[in-house]
Every structure is written in C-alpha cells, then in structure tokens.
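FAQ

Q: What does a record look like?
A: Structure on top, sequence underneath. For example:
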C-alpha cells in the first residue's frame, strides 16, 4: 500500500513538473493561448466604452435589464481595477459588446 501511494505521489509530482516546465500553469490554472487572448480582449474593453454602451442602452431602450446590470458590473470592475479572470466571463463580456454593436451601438466618432 505504501509503495503504491509513493508511486502515485511520484507520478503526480513528475506530471506537475512537466506541466509547469511547458508553461501550462498560470497562477495554478491551466490556460491555453486562445483562452488567454479571449481574457485579454475582454479586459481591454474600457470603462468609458462600457459607460457609453450603458447610456446608449438606456436611451435607445436596448438590451435587457440583466444585460444592463452586467454592463454596470463591468464598469465597477474597471473602476476598482479588477480584471476578468475566467474565460466564460470574458466570452460573456465580448458577446454583450458584440450584441450591442449589432443593435447599432457605436463608440467614438468615425469619419
């Protein structure tokens, strides 16, 4: 029994060293490059853009109340210097921005 447990611990330790050496651990979590890019893209959305989107949604009566609350949450997160850390949260933020744009939201001036 002790030999078996020792063997399992050794195998697991070797696996962790391999994973860490390959750069697959990021703060104890496994992220692929694509997931990291999605998170970075969501975190690149500025508080000003979220605020403009919220103002637009209220003025134009677009987006659901829950979507507007999510936007408020993104604004507060930005104001507090907190980043999105989970892929599903990042995907939701990007999808909400895309939905608003498909409904006519634009940010800034374009000539």
């Amino acid at each position: 029994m002790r030999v078996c447990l020792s063997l399992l611990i050794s195998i697991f330790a070797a696996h962790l060293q391999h994973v860490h050496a390959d750069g697959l651990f990021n703060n104890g979590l496994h992220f692929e490059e694509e997931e990291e890019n999605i998170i970075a893209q969501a975190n690149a959305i500025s508080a000003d853009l979220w605020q403009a989107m919220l103002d637009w949604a209220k003025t134009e009566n677009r987006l659901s109340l829950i979507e507007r609350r999510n936007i408020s949450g993104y604004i507060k997160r930005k104001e507090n210097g907190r980043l999105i850390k989970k892929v599903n949260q990042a995907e939701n933020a990007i999808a909400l921005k895309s939905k608003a744009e498909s409904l006519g939201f634009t940010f800034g001036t374009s000539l």
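Q: Is there anything notable about this one?
A: Residues 2-21 form the longest helix (20 residues).
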